[in-house]
Amino acid sequence: MRDFLKRHQISLLIILLVLVVVLIYSANLRTKTTTTLFERAVLTLTEPLQQAIDRTGASINGLWNNYLWLVDTRRQNIVTRQANRELRARLLAVREVTLENQRLKKLLDFVEADPRKVLPALVVAEDASSWAQTIVLDKGLRHGVQEGNPVVVAEGVVGRVIKVANNSSRVLLLTDAASSIAGLVQRTRTRGVVRGDGRELNLEFALRNDLIEVEDLIMTSGMGGVFPKGLIVGRVTAVQRNDFGLFQQIKLAPVVDFSRLEEVLVLMRPAE
Amino acid sequence: MRGLCFALFGGLIFMLLQTTIFPRFLPPEMRPNLLLILVIYLGLSESFLRAVFLTLLLGALQDVFCGSTFGLYVTVQLTVFLLIRLFSERLNVESRPLLLGLICAGTMLQTFLLGFLLTTFAEAGPVLWVLLSDLPFQIFVNLLAGWLLLLFLLRFQPLFGTRQGMAGLPYQSKYHGA
After folding, report:
1. Which residue of B has its CA nearest to A196?
2. Which of A25, A53, A196 is opposite residue B16, by nearest beta carbon?
3. ipTM of model
4. Do B71 and A24 lie within an 8 Å CB cutoff?
5. What is the pLDDT of residues B133-151, one digit of tens each?
6. Closest Cα to residue A183, out of A207, A206, A212, A158?
7. How many Cβ atoms from other residues are within 10 Å of residue B131's Cβ?
8. Which of A189, A249, A263, B35 has a CA-to-CA distance to A169 between 20 and 30 Å?
């Protein structure tokens, strides 16, 4: 036995090492939203560098887009003006609905929940791989960010915080394959789970009998307690109903353009 | 010690490039994995123990900025390194085309390992299609990045000229040119 161990000590050590790292990975799968000391140290160390590079990049981009490359500006101007007119018209209609809503709330003696505190943050880095969907923000523990905080933009849900260091945090985007949140079809009130597939979104566990259509809006349902109810997640792009089975297959397009994220809002936990 | 610091510093610079510069200009599938190239290079050039230590550190560094679970890239990079090491003694490491061939093989191996670990342990099945559809682009950009890094290294070869068996570079003895 001793001879065998001596003869194969290098091979055995290598096997042991591989087993140990696989076990570390496997153990970390259970505690995805726990930031290790190593991760915290690296994030803290690299955050100023990433911010400096990001700012320099943004300045160069700004110089190029705002002063040197203006070919597209006129066309964009026309499109923006047209969109502005349409939005003004819609805003008038929304104002009417808001006023009506306020009157009805008063009437029902509606007790409004405390609105969550919102923390603006800058995106300073993206995931280093081609398949995972995460971003790094310039706000961390010092600003009150915690693992699990939802992250949004004006258009809708971005993702949730999974790792936090002193001055930075990492956010798992909605489109990552490891991401899933409870969703709700706005029109039919059908519940389901919105899951990322690495590029786009799928609505899973939506009952087959509910008539969901393309262009239907999907929102957060508030189940699970991470995301507040009513945040927009995406729009239905394809529905597939088989002749059998309990559920239908629904593909969604996220409402947020994840390739152009610059500023986001972190929703802080409501004070207890 | 100098080699160790160079590799760690290089790893940090590569990681900053991958997280801040590349995303500004390149779509996800066209961003090269510079740390993989570094690990392959270490597998061919460094002593075993030092290279294992560096590979573990570089894998952990990559885990901080990739995906959601710590340990994935440590496992992947270590396995890639060990397999490269297994063959390196039978290979002529000074050959540049061979190094590029190993980068190609390493990219495929890494995709396979990521797919295997993610589907087996994390049940992240859909990501397999993303990995497979990105593979041809990843091979191309990794080869391009490897070739550019070799050109860069060749330019500064006199600085490293006293070391033996540097992958992709012709051997120069300590007394070369004396």
Report:
1. B126
2. A53
3. 0.81
4. yes
5. 999 999 999 999 999 988 8
6. A206
7. 21
8. B35
